[in-house]
Amino acid sequence: MTESIVSMQGIGKRFAAVKALDGVTFDVPKGSLVSICGENGAGKSTLMKILSGVITDYDGTLSVDGQAVRFSGTRDAEHAGISIIHQELNLVEQLSVAANVFLGREKRSAWLMRDDRSMLEEAGRLLKELECNVPASALAGSLRVGDQQLVEIAKALSLNSRILVMDEPTSALTESEVERLYRVIAKLRERGTTILYISHKMEEVFHLSNQIVVLRDGRFIAQLDTEKTNPQEVTRLMVGRELESIELGERTAQGKKLLAVEKLSLAWPGHARGFRLKDISFDLHEGEVLGIAGLMGAGRTELLECLFGASVLAPTGRIVLEGKEIRPSHPAEALEAGMALVTEDRKRLGIFTAMNVGKNISLCELVSMRSGPAVSNRKEQIASNSMVDKLLIKTAGLQAAITSLSGGNQQKCIIGRWLLTKPKILLLDDPTRGVDVGAKAELYRIIRQLCNEGLGVIVTSSELPEVLTLSDRIMVLSEGRQTALFSRQEATQEKILEAATRGFFTGS
Ligand SMILES: Nc1ncnc2c1ncn2[C@@H]1O[C@H](COP(=O)(O)OP(=O)(O)OP(=O)(O)O)[C@@H](O)[C@H]1O
Ligand SMILES: [Mg+2]
């Protein structure tokens, strides 16, 4: 038997009426990578916050190296060698990368002066080790999410952490960033670092971990050797029942043409290619789901942003909505025209942390809920509640702080917000990121139902099976060009991948 480095004994945690954790007991073998799996709201993040000293008020006993410990804060946990990289990253955006790495532990020179130079050097060295090519003097807020995350890992390295907690680290990463993270994880493991890893992606869990711990409704369900189990079993344990395969059923005939896009192009000044998008043409009918597939950098997000008036530059070409040409130069105009966009970056663009759950959902529809000069509270409540029900959002109520919701449930609030605007066309940019399997199936059903009511949907996803499940037609982009348009019957993973990797000089 391997020695255990962390031991949880009957860990419990309550948030007012919500029992987030209940008697969770298991051991983490030294040097292992243990994945923590469970549905949205199962208690994964809460448990890891306890382990890393973020949450200090809980029941039960936590032991590290066989010693019972009680951390009074993250600093305590860091002393014991435990660091956490949060689901929603935690850098101070206005400070430099180096300052973030050494935050609260600034290096001092002989005269107790802050030693910026040695911090810059040390941070630079750590970043290089992590294949991160940003200068240590750059502002943390100016970095891409993938790089921000590496800064957090650099911080953990500088602390010589023996135990690293990663909460959904790949949920905001592009494919090449994910590969880089995998390499970093492999390096950490060679050094003997123990890793606790939260993820909703089975592929990832099975690729990385030796063991899988399953939580459900705050309770410990199972601890399995990855070699001796399979994704179906883990999923079944997570949801507590057999998940019927996602069968969306018959669909109604498509209606009239909603949208026509003709030769849409978006310039890319200063880049060798010269464009982000080139001559994209397609149409969309009432009741239709158009999937957009492509590798990272193919232009999926850019395409949706152009349609929604949210691109940095104005695109060229024509966008015709219900027979009328539109040129949205701002999201408000696109919204007015009947479009809604669920973006991929929840923290930056989606959630308003100062508002409660109800307000976060009703935000975009407040205008239509006016009765007289004031917004009708009752109408607002009914509207928000309808989305909580429809999307099965797990919350203590509309008054609850949005930050008290688990990550996946926050995502559902954003989707609910846009559904409330009753759009004609719903643009979904990787909508199920961080959403668990059960909720995903629910969301697919909702999308199908909305289509049957006449909505047109354009969806991108980083997961090919999702595009295949949802779409009536699939457009494939490669390096900003359209390389294929498949019907549902024609489309296969192989064909899509082939079109997504086609260099444009050999393509059609
Ligand atoms: N600060 C808080 N105040 C109130 N309730 C909270 C707070 N933090 C978490 N909860 C509740 O505790 C439960 C567990 O949440 P947690 O964030 O641990 O879930 P999770 O398993 O990480 O889910 P996800 O996969 O969606 O990230 C949820 O019901 C959540 O709403
Ligand atoms: Mg979480």
Distance between the termini: 58 Å
Tally of individual helices: 17
Strand arrangement in the largest pleated sheet:
6-7-8-3-9-10
Tell me the number of structural domains: 3
Radius of gyration: 24 Å
Averaged pLDDT: 87
What's the helical proportion of residues? 25-40%
Which structural class is indicated by helix and strand composition? Answer: alpha/beta
Give the distinct bound molecules: adenosine-5'-triphosphate, magnesium ion
In brief:
The protein is 32% helix and 26% strand. The chain has helices spanning 44-51, 74-79, 97-101, 116-129, 145-158, 175-190, 202-208, 231-239, 300-307, 331-337, 346-349, 357-362, 377-390, 407-420, 437-452, 464-470, 493-500; strands at 4-15, 18-29, 33-37, 59-64, 67-69, 82-85, 163-167, 194-198, 211-216, 219-225, 257-267, 275-285, 289-293, 316-321, 324-326, 339-342, 370-371, 374-375, 425-429, 456-460, 473-478, 481-487.
Would you give an account of this structure?
The protein is globular and about 70 Å long. The N and C termini lie far apart (58 Å). Helix content is 32%, strand content 26%. The chain has helices spanning 44-51, 74-79, 97-101, 116-129, 145-158, 175-190, 202-208, 231-239, 300-307, 331-337, 346-349, 357-362, 377-390, 407-420, 437-452, 464-470, 493-500; strands at residues 4-15, 18-29, 33-37, 59-64, 67-69, 82-85, 163-167, 194-198, 211-216, 219-225, 257-267, 275-285, 289-293, 316-321, 324-326, 339-342, 370-371, 374-375, 425-429, 456-460, 473-478, 481-487. It has 17 helices and 22 strands. With 508 residues, it is α/β, with parallel strands linked by helices. The strands form five sheets. It has a six-stranded mixed β-sheet with strand order 6-7-8-3-9-10, with helices on both faces. Strands 16-19-20-13-21-22 form a six-stranded mixed β-sheet, sandwiched between helices. Strands 2-1-4-5 form a four-stranded antiparallel β-sheet, with helices on one face. Helix 4 (116-129) crosses helix 5. Strand 21 (473-478) and strand 22 form a beta hairpin. The protein folds into three domains: 4-239, Rossmann fold, CATH 3.40.50; 254-338 and 424-508, P-loop containing nucleotide triphosphate hydrolases (Rossmann fold); 348-422, no CATH class. The site of adenosine-5'-triphosphate has 19 residues, from strand 2, helix 1 and helix 14.
